Amino acid sequence: MNTFLLFVNILGLLLLIGVLYTMHRKGISFSKRVFTGLGLGILFGFILHIAYGAESEVLAKSVSWFNIVGTGYVKLLQMIVVPLVFISILGAFTKVTIGKNFGKMAGMILGILVGTTAIAAIIGISSSLLFGLDASEIIQGEAEAARGLSLEERSATMADKALPDQILDLLPANPFLDFTGARPTSTIGVVIFAAFLGFAYLALTRRDKENADRVKKGIDAIYSLIMGVVRIVLRLTPYGILAIISKTVATSDFAAIYSLGKFVLASYVALLVMFIIHLVIITISGLNPLTYVKKTAEALLFAFSSRSSAGTLPLTIKTQTDRLGVPDGIANFSGSFGLSIGQNGCAGVYPAMLAVMIAPTVGQNPLEPTFLITLIAIVAVSSFGVAGVGGGATFAAILVLSALNLPIALAGLLISVEPLIDMGRTALNVSGSMTAGVATARVTGELNQDIYNDSIEKQSIEAS
User: Fold this and answer.
1) How many CA atoms are closer than 13 Å to the CA of 79, on its beta-carbon side?
2) What's phi and psi for 384, nearest 5 deg?
3) Are 116 and 251 a contacting pair, CB within 8 Å?
4) 106-163 pLDDT, tens per residue?
5) Highest mean pLDDT among 143-157, 158-172, 356-370
């Protein structure tokens, strides 16, 4: 019987994939197929949840098959992250798009990423206080206790690093090791290595024009090849979102979400307010925020569904360059730095909310000005290199709570709603990266406003 039900579930997913493929064959726009995939995934996942329950064996086996499409798609995106970052940044130097403004561009991107993370911390603090969140009110079960113990053990193995040590960790001692993604800051290491090669190319153009031309042709050819791979993978986006969201809804613990509803609500209020701050920055830059929302919707939707900032990077970069008019160099720097520095959701809102929740359990007044100022500063500084690690929000929380001498184990109380909250956090992280790219391009005068203001119907990131 279980085998028959498993077959029915897999067949159901395949039929929905067939619907999306038929839409593709009929020429229906990429955006509509993406949102259709989301809607079908929610509906299919809810049906499976009602039919089997989140813990059933049949559902677990079904999800393992769904992962071939969903997790497989994310892995394909992750496959092209490092090659895309490397060749795009190097290619930007061959087009001389960032040579003169490199220092200003990099400084602005970092300033916006870290500055918005500090603002995100303030918003997270405010939301916790507004909703009166208190960790002592949360009931701790076996899963929560195990999670808390795991966090304490992880914290014990982490050496607290001073800011200079964190900066040193960003430098690529072995760039070939960073190409394998072996370090938490590998993406930043690849960015730095590509930038050094880029500056070497600019120097070569001044003293050996003939060899410089050969290098440029080679880089341009490899760039075209990598972008061809990106386009192939991005065409799979509607199917990936369908499978990912089906799994998420089907396996969600709705009872736990209900019992921790106040924290979930407070989290999403904070995330929404921070997203509005992003739109304010876009508006201050002299651009239409509604245009930004429309053109980034697909990338943010995938980030929300996949819970992977790294997996979303190809979409993040393509959205900036093809829809928002951001030059390649700025788009790649903001997207790449945004993976490991200043993630507004994971490194900003979340650790700040936890700290304010947990502080009363040890007699600390969360309204004390010294505590609040210290918390905001620690959140901003600790955001360097944190979110590049798998489970970046947890890593950020450990750093912040440890620095404030707050009990780390209490962070495990939220394990049952972590996936739901992480969806919103990841979308906010990606929005922060794109906001930094757009604002920087606007200030440096390199933003193509014709592309930014052009109709979205003419700008499919799938095939451009």
Assistant:
1) 14
2) -70, 115
3) no
4) 889 989 999 999 999 999 999 999 988 877 665 554 454 555 455 555 555 554 555 5
5) 356-370
Six token digits for residue 286: 């002299």
CB 69 within 8 A of CB 240: yes
Backbone dihedral region for residue 385 (phi beyond 0: left; psi -120 to 50: alpha; all else: beta)? left
Residue 37 CA to its chain's centroid (Å): 20
- Residue 396, amino acid: A
pLDDT higher than 70, residue 422? yes
Q: Which amino acid is at 436?
A: A
Listed residue (382, 377, 370, 314) closest to 343, CA to CA: 382
Q: Token pair 């592309």 is at which residue?
A: 451
Whose tokens are 């709603």? That residue is: 417
The encoded tokens of residue 404 equal 């404030």
Query: Which structure tokens are listed for 176?
Result: 């070939």
Q: What is the pTM of this model?
A: 0.80
φ, ψ for residue 250, nearest 5 deg: -65, -35
